[in-house]
Write a structure and sequence with these properties.
CATH class: Alpha Beta
Number of domains: 1
Order of helices and strands: EHEHEHEHHHEEEEEH
Helix content: 25-40%
Number of strands: 9
Largest sheet: 9 strands, mixed
Strand content: 15-25%
Radius of gyration: 18 Å
CATH architecture: 3-Layer(aba) Sandwich
Distance between the termini: 5 Å
CATH superfamily: P-loop containing nucleotide triphosphate hydrolases
Number of helices: 7
Length: 245
Amino acid sequence: MLLSPHPFRERLLLYGQEGTGKSRAYWTIAKILRDTKAPGFVHVLDLDNSWSRMASGFPGYESNMRMYEPQGYVEMLAQGLKVKGKAGEGDWLCVDGMGEAWDGTQEAYASRAEGKDLVSWMLESGRTNDYGKSANAQNKMWREMGKLIRTFPGHVLCCSPAQQVMEKGDGSIMDPRQSRYQAVGWRPMGQNTLGYMFHTVLYLNQIGDRWIYSTVKDREREGKVNGRMGDFVGDYLVKVGGWVV
């Protein structure tokens, strides 16, 4: 069994460089559930289009994993809500590609409000770094994704690439909302307040042949700096989160 001793649900965001084990985390959770005959399904909204490659290393995944490849914001949200409607407390919702999810939200706005693809709209309007008044509309659309994550009846694990935190000449950061990420120097790609959706935010990296992680946020849990992340279930859920296998 893979059991949580807590009355609350996990809401985890893993972000970092490529090849640091972000996607492997939820594949490992599903494997432990299978190996221990624990109930629960792992539902994956794969916006990274990587599941078929990962599946080759996890035979038998079909028994408790459900893979979805939504195209765009509408399909993504609709599929997530469909999964939520049938999910139980032991299920997991995993969104692989939160940066892509935010891109899809922006593209959906440009298509519906302007009748153009996002790039054409940005170029024609002269907006390359901001979206003017449209930002309010896009953020309202994005909040529906946040509502899905916060109200999912089981556990949630999402993944995002990392992008560098931008600093001014005096060393202060350009966007004060990203101050929490200044210590590691990298923030999750996507909407600026993405981290607020989660109880736990972990930055994953690699040193030599070793996967490591640093805690950006973890409510009521011990933080780690360059902690070992060889196996997400053992090194985080069990050792830090108190889960039992």
